[in-house]
Design goal:
single chain; Rossmann fold; Dihydrodipicolinate Reductase, domain 2; 2 domains; six-stranded parallel beta sheet; binds 3-amino-D-alanine; protein dimerization activity; methionine biosynthesis
Length: about 350
């Protein structure tokens, strides 16, 4: 006996990956539906070796469906997630809409799977921001061993985090640099992204930080520990897929780099790639399509007491979105929606 699963936003980058990963991990599916906006009606999407025709979200009836993975914007989620939840279908939402709602669990299974039981308050579970997910997977095992006091993180976020238009902009702008007359002006981003980096993701807040940076603070506190002080600088870089993060951690107690490496090597969801030689570290192009959160450049920070530096890389469409959502569905099924 399996589950009746709906992927909402099935034609987007994350929606595609949700279908791919449900099939790859052989999630127990009885029925599967691919749903998207009316303009995508009838578009064919793959689910393993099957082909699904997308159905119209406006007409879709969620009654009789068990789990809906949502990968659409917050506005559409606001309209349709409550309808799905009211019809008895548990929503796992990748938008930011419900992440900060005290009645909605925000889950990274390797960190706080137990919190899934809170889904029943609104029949909704929130998926974290991509840059948060890979960070807390690495922080959790270290926090358990040597309580984290403060984290400073700089992110290097790929354009797929913005969406298809951004991928096209990077591609066309890069090509246009080499072909006179084919220059492509910035449209998705405020400045040129080809051969450039942009220290601005999402909107600016009154304190000068951006909402992306605020999300990392708020979500790390909700998922891991509200006592952790975190400051972030989120940067867009000319990479298609794969978010990277340079992370500085200050612990309450001393922990040496060897013990950090050993702990991370044993931690769920993590692969350590860490040799002090050319190529002995992970880079974004190597994480594409992988499930793992990769950690490299593990080293003591001798400028403070109890300090350690890390380099964390993961596929932002997978662990940063679709994989984490499917993992939540797995935990939900195993712990809360037992079938047969
Ligand atoms: C980004 N984290 O990278 C945001 C949304 N996916 O653009």
């Amino acid at each position: 006996m399996g589950y009746n699963v709906v992927v909402v936003g099935a034609t987007g980058n994350v929606g595609h990956e949700m279908l791919n990963i449900l099939a790859e991990r052989e999630f127990p599916v009885d029925k599967i539906a691919a749903v998207a906006s009316r303009r995508s009606l009838g578009t064919e999407v793959s689910f393993g070796d099957k082909t699904l025709k997308t159905q119209d979200l406006e007409q879709f009836d969620f009654k009789g469906w068990d789990i809906a993975l949502f990968a659409i914007g917050s506005d559409a989620t606001k309209e349709y997630a409550p309808k799905a939840a009211a019809a008895g279908c548990v929503v796992i939402d990748n938008s930011s809409l419900y992440r900060y709602d005290p009645d909605v669990p925000l889950i990274v299974p390797e960190v706080n799977a137990d919190a899934v039981v809170g889904y029943s308050k609104k029949n909704i579970i929130a998926n974290p921001n991509c840059s948060t997910a890979q960070l807390v997977v690495a922080l959790k095992p270290l926090h358990d061993r040597a309580k984290i006091k403060r984290v400073v993180v700089a992110t290097y976020q790929s354009v797929s985090g913005t969406g298809k238009e951004a991928i096209d902009e990077l591609w066309n702008q890069t090509k246009g640099m080499y072909v006179p007359g084919q220059e492509v002006a910035p449209k998705v981003y405020p400045k040129q992204i080809a051969f450039n980096v942009i220290p601005h993701i999402d909107v600016f807040l009154d304190d000068g930080s951006t909402k992306e940076e605020w999300k990392m603070v708020a979500e790390t506190k909700k998922i891991l520990d509200k006592s952790i002080k975190l400051t972030a600088t989120c940067v867009r870089v000319p990479v298609f897929v794969g978010h990277s993060e340079a992370v500085n951690i200050e612990f309450e107690d001393f922990i040496d780099e060897e013990e950090v490496r050993d702990i991370l090597r044993e931690a769920p969801g993590i692969l350590v790639v860490d040799k002090r030689e050319a190529g002995g570290y992970i880079t974004p192009v190597e994480c594409v399509g992988e499930y793992a959160t990769f950690v490299s450049r593990i080293r003591q920070d001798s400028t403070i007491d109890n300090g350690v530096n890390l380099w964390i890389v993961s596929d932002n469409l997978r662990k940063g979105a679709a994989l984490n959502a499917v993992q939540i569905a797995e935990v939900l099924g195993q712990r809360c929606l037992k079938k047969g």
